[in-house]
Design goal:
8 helices; single chain; Rossmann fold; alpha/beta; binds NADP nicotinamide-adenine-dinucleotide phosphate
Length: about 260
């Protein structure tokens, strides 16, 4: 288990939403490898149990909690059970998210609601539930919202997702403003395109490769590319950062093509 005084998260309780796959699973592993007590949360319990088992066999500490961020009762229950299993939450990684790739003209009311309810309402619900417990306990904390470069720029066929992530950027800044007095820092990471199981095939395809050419660094990101930003914002290395949006995208947003 590595330690680094600047980016130290040893003994901190970190709740990671959407930890059953992709980036969330990676964030949970990274925080646990650095000595945080991780609570991995999502809807698919069997995947969370497998992750917790893997973290424990690597010598880390982790727990699994079922969570549907679109359900306020589930948010309250999961937050309480996370604190019951691991102790007061110090770090929330608000990572749960879904995308819907449809032309805007085809988007249904239900599609729009599902994407907004998960990526935006869900992140706000989680932030509020965790902040209430931090404020009541008079404990400082760090909230890291996983936004996207699509909260800062546009792409076709991702209307609801882009709207939700843009609003999450504003939520990040507004909560940072309100909660600084309680010692709660609220920041966001805006990843560019990162390879996870859900898009690996696409990036290997011809249209996927064309997209890679629009990234100034000429490559798609790997989950490990987000580790530095995560640890910066989660730990005291980011003690004077709140309301920041850290873009990690190989230069994608600065390319206007
Ligand atoms: N990969 C990228 O290129 C990229 C780029 C920018 C931003 N992001 C953002 O990064 C985050 C993770 O994306 P990913 O690529 O890792 O996708 P992913 O592999 O599909 O992971 C999404 C996670 O969110 C969870 N989730 C979805 N709906 C949920 C709900 N209602 N309640 C609780 N958990 C829920 C899923 O778990 P269950 O299904 O088990 O609930 C899953 O663990 C998302 O917020 C995404 O928008 C990704």
């Amino acid at each position: 288990m590595s330690s680094d005084p600047l980016f130290d998260v040893r003994g901190k309780v970190a709740l990671v939403t959407g930890a059953s796959s992709g980036l969330g699973e990676h964030f949970a592993r990274v925080l646990a490898a650095r000595g945080a007590v991780v609570v991995a949360a999502a809807r698919r319990m069997e995947r969370l149990q497998a992750l917790v088992g893997a973290i424990r066999s690597d010598g880390g500490t982790a727990h699994a909690v079922q969570l549907d961020v679109a359900d306020p009762a589930s948010v309250d229950a999961a937050t309480a059970s996370a604190a019951g299993l691991a102790g007061p939450i110090d770090i929330l990684v608000n990572n749960a998210g879904v995308a819907d790739t449809k032309a805007s003209i085809e988007l249904t009311e239900a599609d729009w609601r599902r994407v907004l309810d998960t990526n935006l309402d869900g992140a706000w619900r989680m932030a509020q539930a965790v902040a209430k417990s931090m404020i009541a306990a008079k404990r400082p904390g760090s909230i890291v919202n996983i936004a996207s470069i699509l909260g800062l720029r546009q792409a076709t066929h991702l209307l609801a997702y882009a709207a939700a992530k843009a609003a999450l950027v504003q939520v990040t800044k507004a909560l940072a403003l309100e909660w600084a007095r309680h010692g709660i820092r609220v920041n966001a990471i805006a990843p560019g395109y990162i390879v996870t199981d859900m898009n690996r095939e696409f990036f290997a395809s011809e249209p996927g490769q064309a997209m890679v050419k629009r990234v100034p660094q000429r490559r798609i990101g790997e989950p490990r590319d987000l580790e530095g930003a995560l640890l910066l914002l989660a730990s005291d290395a980011g003690a004077y950062m709140t309301g920041s949006v850290v873009v990690v995208d190989g230069g994608h947003v600065v390319n206007s093509l």
